[in-house]
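quick q for whoever's on today - can somebody do inverse folding on this one?? i tried earlier but teh output was garbage lol. tokens:
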């Protein structure tokens, strides 16, 4: 029973239960992903990596495609059944269709709020796969395929997985949960934008000398250049994305959360599917 005398909600079913292999795979791709995004701040000016500053983003992009595929396959092997795959397809298609709605308009990206709510209800394992697959599908839909796509897939996978790691998935409901999801969506929208800035920043080369990455400069100077790059190129877009995510979470969050939880209960992901022989059993006389 809760403090208000109402029955406590039952434990929330998860579309995917992460096993040791899945957790290890997520840890590996997370570590490599941090290096892939932040290598301009991790490599000293005299390092061999900076000597290949023009090639490094392409190499990391190819590596991330491989790693995200490996993690998705590992999570799938750990229990992504037919019902979970069906829900994954529906949500990924919906998210991919939502993404072009505000394309080119100051951060109006409604897919982010759907990813937050889906990760919250369906858990971190499903969330990582959903975020990655949704971004891949939307890239194919909008023609946004390029070296930035693997970074988008990993960033959206982290974004959606983070919502599944928020506290109180079984007991926190109502306004408290909406406030938590809105706050997460606001902060994570900026984190996503910053991560994507880090991925695209080294591609500038000498196009914008005052804010582009300089492989011969020290870390503090490159950090100042990066902050200037963020302020000049994406601060307004990130703010718009964050505000839209908060507004949609607070207004559409309750019915969408109820629908997702109802679908999760009806799907009964953790119940084994059995098939019975329809033929009558003949007993010996």
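ok took a stab at it. sequence:
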């Amino acid at each position: 029973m809760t403090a208000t005398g109402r029955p406590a909600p039952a434990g929330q079913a998860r579309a995917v239960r992460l096993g040791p292999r899945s957790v290890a795979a997520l840890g590996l791709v997370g570590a490599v992903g941090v290096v892939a995004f932040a290598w301009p701040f991790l490599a000293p000016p005299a390092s061999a990596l900076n000597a290949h500053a023009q090639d490094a983003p392409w190499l990391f992009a190819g590596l991330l495609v491989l790693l995200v595929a490996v993690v998705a396959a590992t999570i799938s092997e750990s229990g992504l059944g037919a019902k979970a795959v069906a829900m994954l397809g529906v949500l990924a298609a919906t998210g991919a269709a939502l993404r072009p709605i505000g394309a080119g308009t100051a951060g109006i990206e409604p897919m982010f709020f759907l990813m937050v709510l889906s990760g919250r209800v369906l858990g971190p394992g499903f969330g990582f796969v959903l975020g990655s697959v949704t971004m891949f599908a939307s890239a194919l839909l909008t023609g946004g395929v390029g070296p930035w796509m693997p970074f988008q897939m990993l960033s959206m996978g982290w974004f959606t997985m983070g919502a599944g790691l928020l506290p109180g998935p079984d007991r926190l409901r109502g306004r408290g949960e909406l406030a938590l999801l809105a706050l997460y969506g606001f902060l994570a929208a900026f984190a996503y934008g910053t991560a994507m800035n880090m991925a695209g920043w080294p591609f500038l080369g000498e196009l914008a000398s005052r804010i582009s990455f300089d492989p011969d400069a020290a870390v503090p100077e490159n950090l100042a250049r990066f902050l200037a790059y963020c302020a000049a190129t994406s601060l307004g877009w990130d703010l718009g994305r964050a505000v839209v995510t908060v507004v949609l979470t607070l207004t559409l969050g309750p019915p969408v959360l109820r629908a997702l939880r109802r679908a999760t209960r009806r799907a009964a992901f953790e119940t084994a599917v059995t098939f019975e022989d329809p033929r009558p059993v003949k007993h010996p006389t």
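fwiw Residues 1-9 have pLDDT under 50 and may be disordered. also The radius of gyration is 22 Å. so keep that in mind when u check it
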